[in-house]
Request: fold
Amino acid sequence: MALTLFRGIQTRPLLPYSYAFSARKHVIFCSMQSTQAETSMRTKQQAPSNFTETARAKAVEKVLKDYEAIIGIETHVQLATTTKAFCSCAYSYGSQPNSCVCPVCMGLPGALPVLNSKVIKCAVMLGLALNCELSLSSKFDRKQYFYPDLPKGYQISQFDVPIATNGFIDVDLPLEFGGGHRRFGITRVHMEEDAGKLLHTGSGSYSQVDLNRAGVPLIEIVSEPDMRTGIEAAEYAAELQRVVRYLGVSNGNMQEGSLRCDVNVSIRPIGQLEFGTKVEIKNLNSFSAMSRAIDFEIARQAELYNQGQADEIVQETRLWEEGGQKTVTMRKKEGLADYRYFPEPDLPEVVLTEEYVNGIRDSLPELPEMKRRRYEEMGLTMQDVLFLANDVNVAEFFDATIAKVPDIKLAANWIMGDIAAYMKNEKLSINEIKLSPQELSELIASIKSGTISGKIGKEILLELMEKGGTVKGLIEEKDLVQIVDPVEIEKIIDKVIANNPKQLEQYRGGKTKLQGFFAGQVMKESKGKANPGLVNKILIEKLNAKS
Amino acid sequence: MLSSVQNPRTLLLHCRRSKPLHHHYHHRHYAKPIHATPLSHPISASLPTSQIQTIQKSILSREKTTRQFAEEFLNRLRLTEPHVKSFLHVSETVLDEADEIDRKIDRNEDVGPLAGVLVAVKDNICTADMPSTAGSKILENYRPPFDATAVKKLKESGAIIVGKTNLDEFGMGSTTEGSAYQVTANPWNLECVPGGSSGGSAAAVSARQCVVSLGSDTGGSVRQPASFCGVVGLKPTYGRVSRYGLVAYASSLDVIGCFGSSVADAGILLQSICGHDKLDATSSKREVNDFTSQFISKDYFESQPLKGLRVGVISETLGDGVDQEVVSSIRGAVSHLEELGCTVTEVSLPSFSLGLPAYYVLASSESSSNLSRYDGVRYGNQMVSDELSSLYGGSRANGFGPEVKRRILMGTYALSAGYYDAYYKRAQQVRTLVQKSFKAALDSHDILISPAAPSAAYKIGEKKNDPLAMYAGDIMTVNVNLAGLPALVLPCGFVKESSSSLPVGFQMIGAAFDEEKLLRVGHIFEQTLQGYSFIPPLIADEFKS
Reply:
């Protein structure tokens, strides 16, 4: 069956922009090679020189004195459901081409879609998480256009009655960009299906169709044009990523295309009421690319305004070029495309009961905004709050740690300090390290109770992260329990003093700096287990005692 | 609000404009219980019996083998097919399958309610082991990787699929002349069309090339050919039978229907294919009653077996533009129903004439979308090209016939920005009106009666170049699809054509999911209608004994 898919076809887009062949082809090429392409891009991204970064920021800052930028974002989130939206095919990224297909998602004659109820559940979760009004009765529509990656010749989507509308999302901007709280409006949230992918041969003489992705469920989230800078836009998208990850509805992975953002940018002179002409930017594979592309676009449009060439800003789709750090024209719109939407007759209306919605509302997890506010109330600094709440796994780790030993500051410090450093060095996520939150709280408790010293705590932590095991087990195994018995410590000190008569003489002769030497010797003798406070206290008494 | 949609008369006028067949001739052929055989039929009138029940009884009692039945039908098929041309593909495994059933019977294994029954399947219904072209060149030699749910159920019931029948391309047409492959003839008069789009399935049952057959009905494609070919045609309620595997024409109207030479056969066939299917979200979860319990023997009928049944004759369907002989036949059927005890009144469905334009807008719109998938990329005929747009254009220009192109164009237009409200949306409003007026009529009547078509079968080629005349012929049936209701067409009389007679069927429309009542009334009607035989002259000799 799959073989029939590999018919040679020459790719030329048919509708609606039939002339922009090379540009369109380029885009598809990029998305299909996404893994490799994005890795190389990221390498480049990591080293944009400080000079350009600063220059760019300055340029935008200058522009924004005279102009206001209006930014809206359309985001596609690929849902992590076990099966596709309208058939029972399992889909996994990177599978052999055309190995996750069936008559339904291949659009064979006579095949019919049947809605996967998990898609509705995810859409309702997202709608609620984005503070939307839900349509208790919504429907699917067909969006019609021809392209080889669209097997039925139409995409099943939602047109005039989306499942959720009129919501908002709260964002805390990173401190390095000035910080601050923002609320951005969400226009609508709707369900639809993904298309397949075209694979172009190196020679360009023919193309192949991979329909694995066809029919994979997507949620499209359309924002209000509420963002004003590249950073705000990137943070909006990052917050969406956090929300979908907190909810567990998607892996939110931009590189794999599980989270795709198309951005609309226009500018207008400050004080002007009507909007300027908007430009759409595609091919944004990371939040930082999004931020830079928008800033570039704002500067480009402002430049045209300044030169009296505002009419050269036309409604078009531009492509972000990572290599050149600029946007270029991909296709110009000649009027609106007519997708001839009409209600999908193969699927019944989607009817939600209050009961169903309430059930989902009650089972929603704590969302990023709620978590941030809670951490803030716990007394953590905004820096700490953002660090801990940005990654759902880190937040969960933190929450689990403080559940047992509620020392918020200590837990935060360990996670943001030694643990974060280790994760960064080893390029591991918090779920990949061997340390469990239970052991971290055990470690904190052991240090607090004085069972082990902080120094030994650090050593154990490393071992726990690398090899796992329990704090108790390690302490026992390595005989690391701190010596807190003054008699025991006194014995060691006596031994050290007795072994170093010369140094004792010098000390008593006024060279009191040597106290450090004695302390070191004591720690060495006790294999680091002696309680440093007690050591110092007893040592001073002994050293200063008249013999 | 809808005054500007279309003048009620105009559509029927198209019908008149196009040379009426029987203008000069108003010979009445009432269907009367006591009446003698119509002129052209030398065969002794015998009541239709359930062939399915006969076969089942014979093979289970080992009176005859399945193979003997199969050979009988295949021989007739071989003899008649060169004239009728109802099949696009005939299975080569019929006798093997028959033998297999016989072996099962020998071993006393369960063989299913349709064991040994040769079923023909319209070629727009997918079969994994036979081509499924939907009568279109664009699907030439296409073999689906799966059986339609209806076909799967047939096989599970022990039926033998004898072959795939001819149709108007994708079900779009009323004559079966719209097939990309061949023209099917009406077994009653080989110069006439069998109707359409399920003309092949109707002709195959009429010529007894198979026991029963499956068709599909989007705007009358089962009922009109049933009327033209003198067989029973059953259009179930929308959602009663799974559409999975039915090549979509207009998804909100399409339904798989049944042909038989008796009401019982059509009912038994429906019984085996209906019910909810998890592969079709529009299939109904309603419980399915046992239709076959309706088919009691004539000997047990009371004197007025249908006493108290409220029958409404739709007044709009017997007026201008309807062949007078057809009207006479329907009136004959109505008086027969009265004799059976029914209370008959006329009922008006004011929105009736609006249905036709609304149907053509909606069906074309949906078809323009449903047929987008035939792009030559994944399957079907492909025009090799250097450019994507000419690959699409070439494959579709070459693969689709003129009627299909016409409907794609109409539908694309109706859905286009700026026209949607005036056409598609307006048509949906009409659809709601039609549904409401049927609902009201069926609240006060048990069944509604109308002709199945404004005329009997007409000559091949007669309306081929006049699409509007052909569309107008669907006036009697499209409303039922818009309302999603079940309807049963049964032969009830004849119209005299120069040298021969052509059968006429009448349509009984019931409430949604009440096929049971239609089958009960139909069965009693058929079993008490004396003096008519609906076996076409082509094979009459064989049935003379």
About this structure: The longest helix of chain A spans residues 287-306. Residues 1-49 of chain A have pLDDT under 50 and may be disordered.
